[in-house]
Write a structure and sequence with these properties.
This protein is mainly β. The chain is built from two helices and six strands, in the order βαββαβββ.
Length: 121
């Protein structure tokens, strides 16, 4: 099971949902990227669709091994509570790390974020 999590939106430090991830982070994270398209949902959080040739900017965190199952359970539940019903998928980051990330489901009107960076929208 992967121990890394790539985050690109409100789970990043300084945004509103960082508190859900912070107790489970085993490190300070590293700046990273994943291929895909980033969108503004118009609901104060982004959506990502992975793959393709564009780049999504974020951070990759090592999750605490002693709390890994708890971390994934908490994050899965939180991501499933927002409109669009996000799902956890496997990605390979620009640094070559196999990681989990949350991908958009469906049902929202999306506006592309050309920079690929939620903080630079």
């Amino acid at each position: 099971m992967h121990r890394y999590l790539f985050v690109y939106g409100t789970l990043r430090p300084g945004d509103v949902r960082w508190s859900f991830l912070e107790p489970f982070a085993a490190d300070e994270g590293v700046d990273d990227t994943v291929t895909g398209l980033l969108y503004d949902t118009g609901l104060d959080y982004p959506a990502a669709i992975f793959g393709g040739e564009r780049t999504i900017v974020g951070r990759t965190y090592l999750l605490r091994i002693d709390r890994l199952d708890e971390a994934l359970s908490v994050l899965d539940e939180e991501e499933d509570t927002v409109l669009g019903l996000y799902r956890r998928v496997e990605v390979t980051t620009g640094r070559g790390m196999a990681a989990w990330a949350y991908e958009y489901g469906n049902g929202l009107d999306l506006t592309p974020i050309e920079s690929g960076d939620w903080f630079a929208r």
